[in-house]
Write a structure and sequence with these properties.
Number of domains: 3
Structural class: alpha+beta
Strand content: 15-25%
Distance between the termini: 39 Å
Radius of gyration: 22 Å
CATH topology of the largest domain: Immunoglobulin-like
Number of helices: 8
CATH class of the largest domain: Mainly Beta
Shape: globular
Helix content: 10-25%
CATH architecture of the largest domain: Sandwich
Number of strands: 19
């Protein structure tokens, strides 16, 4: 497919605005394969991630606590952070509700995101919403009874619960672990799910897996037009492979051709609560699965030299203002970029994967601002203290996280300075 055809395909599914039109009347199987592959990608990715975690020893309806910060060995979820310890559980509500106990956390940042199998945040409790006093919350699924401020309702029978607890690492880890230990999940034993094909599966297998997942976790009625297209779709038609290929190209191109303002892309207002914005939902599932809503965290991605990435051996500088517009914390992360667009931490001589407002040993300017030096090689001298190492080779990218962003971030009045060549 040439670039003209690809841009026509992008326009057909609304990628120019990152929204698929649910009333797309094109009925040919290539267009159906393209649109339905993107529509199904989030639930496929959720099922794949669940299978990976359960294969690593997790138990349904039980929390597992990560006791160390993510590093270059963390490869289960794209774009991990290096600021919070994760506690997670895959939830099965088919046997009944489960109960989440939250400990007193004080002023420490924490959040617990309950995501349905389409990667929507159905509820986020935490320092912003419920405070630091702790409590007990009943998690219920479709058709199960329960109401009130202590009830969290999930839109699908299966879900992912992801708890983030802020830590400074090092000497702060024992105190962070004590907080983690206070998070408990109780409920009936879940039913082990079957295996489902991943996004790299052959089209016939991919769509068979999608149909099975839609039965185990039905989508909302507002997806009716897409479900009607899927019901009439034959995955073995001659144009299906071409449609899947176009969907994959659309995902890659859309990730590379984001809109940047002053060198950074800013997340859309419906991040993590996607509604019928199916293409944006698919892109986030591929590049940032489990993203929080923007009121909880704003994710910025640097434009790079091309395709949203840096490729060479140059030294770069990011000048960070003395006062960042957040009510919690900020963090700049370095990632190596895989061929399919996913981002993971890379091994480096400092074991430093991010720089943030709590990073020890940084040197600030007289006005309180901070110059972060970014590159593959140590910049030397006084700059070394503020060096964020890039991977030894290959493309790399920068992501800025702003936790509990202030109003001027959310409404666009504040912009982060651009990354510049030193």
């Amino acid at each position: 497919m040439n670039r003209r055809e690809l841009f026509a395909a992008l326009a057909a599914v609304g990628v120019t605005g990152l929204a698929m039109r649910p009333d797309d009347a094109r009925a040919d199987e290539t267009a159906d394969a393209r649109d339905l592959w993107l529509y199904g990608l989030p639930i496929i990715e959720m099922a794949t991630t669940r299978a990976r975690h359960l294969g690593e020893g997790m138990t349904l309806n039980r929390l597992r606590h990560a006791r160390t910060l993510s590093d270059h060995t963390a490869r289960s979820v794209t774009t991990p952070n290096n600021d919070t310890l994760y506690s997670m559980a895959w939830i099965d509500l088919t046997q009944g509700p489960v109960t989440l106990t939250v400990p007193a956390t004080g002023d420490r940042y924490w959040s617990a995101a309950l995501m349905d199998m389409y990667s929507n945040n159905n509820a986020v409790i935490g320092l912003r919403t419920t405070g630091g006093a702790g409590g007990r919350y009943r998690i219920v699924g479709p058709g199960q009874t329960g109401s009130g401020p202590d009830v969290l309702r999930c839109e699908t029978p299966h879900a992912w619960l992801l708890v983030r607890t802020l830590t400074d690492g090092g000497a702060d880890l024992p105190a962070t672990h004590a907080v983690q230990d206070g998070f408990r999940l109780e409920g009936p034993a879940g039913v082990m799910p079957p295996a489902f094909p991943g996004r790299a599966a052959a089209p016939a297998d991919y769509f068979a897996g999608l149909r099975a997942l839609l039965k185990s976790d039905p989508p909302p009625a507002t997806d009716g037009r897409m479900l009607a297209r899927l019901a009439a779709f034959q995955a073995d038609g001659p144009g299906v492979a071409a449609g899947v290929q176009r969907a994959q190209q659309i995902a890659r191109l859309a990730l590379e051709r984001q809109q940047f303002v002053q060198g950074w892309s800013y997340t859309r207002a419906n991040l993590g609560i996607f509604g019928q914005d199916y293409v944006y939902r698919a892109l986030v599932a591929l590049s940032g699965l489990a993203a929080l809503p923007v009121v909880e965290a704003m994710y910025l991605r640097a434009e790079g030299e091309r395709d949203g990435a840096y490729w060479g051996d140059d030294l770069y500088r990011l000048s960070i203002p003395a006062r960042m517009p957040v009510d919690a914390f900020w963090s700049l992360s370095m990632y190596e970029i895989t061929p399919d667009g996913q981002r993971f931490f890379a091994e480096n001589p400092l074991d430093r994967y991010a720089i943030g407002d709590r990073t020890p040993g940084l040197t600030r300017n007289p006005d309180g601002s901070l110059d972060v030096w970014i590159g593959r090689a140590d910049p030397g001298g006084a700059r070394s203290a503020n060096w964020l190492p890039a991977p030894r080779s290959g493309p790399f990218g920068l992501n800025m996280r702003l936790y509990l962003p202030k109003a001027e971030v959310l409404d666009g009045r504040w912009l982060l300075p651009a990354v510049e060549k030193a």
